[in-house]
Amino acid sequence: MKPIKVLKNRSDIGAGTRGSDMGIDALEIAAINSESDFFNRHPYIDIPTHNETVYNKVQNSTAKRLNFVTAQCERVKSATSQTLLDDFFPLILSGDHSSALGSLSGIKSAFPSKTIGAVWIDAHADLHSPFSTPSGNVHGMPLAAALGNDNLEYKKNTVSDKTLSDWEQLKNMGTVFPILKPEHLVYFGVRDIEEEEASIMDAHQIKNYPVYEVRQRGLSVCVEETIKKLADVDLIYITFDVDALDCDLISRGTGTPVSKGFDPNEVIELIKGVLRSGKVVALEVCEINPLLDEKGNFMAETAFEIIQSLFDSN
After folding, report:
1. pTM (whole model) above 0.85
2. Of 60, 83, 80, 81, which Cα lies nearest the Cα of 14?
3. Of 237, 251, 297, which Cα lies nearest the Cα of 81?
4. What is the domain-level CATH number for residue 292?
5. Which end of the chain is more exposed for a tag (fewer CB within 10 A), N or C?
């Protein structure tokens, strides 16, 4: 694997609960407390944020702070693209998951002629749009934007012209529209799915490996099937939202915890298995919220152990 560069994206403006912007600092504290110099040994980029906008009154209930999320995704896109062009492997540490659209766009920007696949490790499908969202939180929309899917069949919100303009800008951030095709997306661990999202998954036959299936059939079997499914893509992006972990086993230190998730070793072996394909060009870890952690800093400590197992043999 190429040498890694850490991209620190302390943005949480796409989330409904504040605090995931502190997730990167929590990871660094976890490293210090485990006497690891991981963050000293790897080069990094601090990506500027728009976190001050949380003080602004929300004017748009169907896609809160969408214009600022779009601007943040542009910053992540630029950092990811430059990191790839500099021949590093981007380890993207993000606050909330809305920035994943920037990560995908950055890969596409660096390699416009390449086809991208995505392995999405998450408790949620992230397939809402401003038209279908029940919350207006943009961290539930990055995949809908990447797929270019408005899900108008389940439209229940009236979307303003300004929101529509910002949404179109977000969807068209890549050099090719859409950035991702549904047949090039594989989920692991999604178990909190709303009807609007299930309709897209069913219509496009997007594969989800729930935790019970992984355990019944075997992780290696599911990973092998995933690599075969993504045989036609040139590059793979992996994103790991820590709410894919079992909140009862680990902690509730994430914005939207869900029970009956993976244990840390399963996530490690899953990511390692996909890495062995030789196609993975970036990994994102997101949604650590130390303010919600009832076990001190345990979610960040667990996430750092996973990162260390993947990248650090020392």
Report:
1. yes
2. 60
3. 237
4. 3.40.800.10
5. C
pLDDT tens track for 235-259: 999 999 999 999 999 999 999 999 9
Q: How does DSSP assign 85-140, residue by residue?
A: HTT-EEEEEESSGGGHHHHHHHHHHHSTTS-EEEEEESSS-----TTT-SS--GGG
* Residue span of the structural domain in which 156 resides: 4-311
Cis peptide before 178 (omega within 30 of 0): yes
Is residue 302 within 8 A of residue 264, CB to CB? The reply is yes
Domain count within the chain: 1
Tokens matching residue 125: 């499908």
CA–CA separation, 111 and 169 (whole Å): 20
| Nearest to 233, CA basis, from 265, 277, 190 | 277
pLDDT > 50? residue 314: no
Nearest to 303 by CA among 40, 34, 117: 34
Instruction: Give the whole-angstrom CA distance, residue 131 versus residue 63.
Output: 9
Asked if the model's pLDDT at residue 155 lies above 80, the reply is yes
